[in-house]
Known about the structure:
Number of domains: 1
CATH topology: Rieske Iron-sulfur Protein
CATH architecture: 3-layer Sandwich
Strand order of the largest sheet: 1-9-8
Distance between the termini: 25 Å
Helix content: under 10%
Structural class: mainly beta
Strand content: 15-25%
Shape: globular
Largest sheet: 3 strands, antiparallel
CATH superfamily: Rieske [2Fe-2S] iron-sulphur domain
Amino acid sequence: MKGPREVDISDILPGELKRVSWQGKAVLILRRDEEALKSLPGLDEKVSDPGSNDSEQPGYAKNEYRSVKPEYLIVQGWCTHLGCIPTYARKGEIAEIENWQGGFFCPCHGSRFDLAGRVFKGVPAPLNLIVPPHQYLSDSVVLIGDDSGAA
């Protein structure tokens, strides 16, 4: 599909991830719950680019949540190391990683990203996951690939 894509997000429950395709690329839409949002500031010391200064995202997503609406994270679904597709893992689902608060894990080379798509220090991936241009058309529909009407 070329051009922007409308996605219904009304069916995503807190803590759940929806995968969609936009221009042949994977896009991950995560609906974060309150616990996930509260965990993000505590990870600033553990991630490489906590302020998203070196990462690719629209200006409206350069904030602590890397999103327009804190509840939703929208990122391109490939690792910034070699383009592998990271797996979403909830809090505690990766036993090998001490105090895993949830996020994205690239099983190919071990890169890890938090629930804002920020890359952890000491992994192969150099940058945070990319936030594509997007805008909310309503509370239940997001348009991926076009942010011309975004505030």
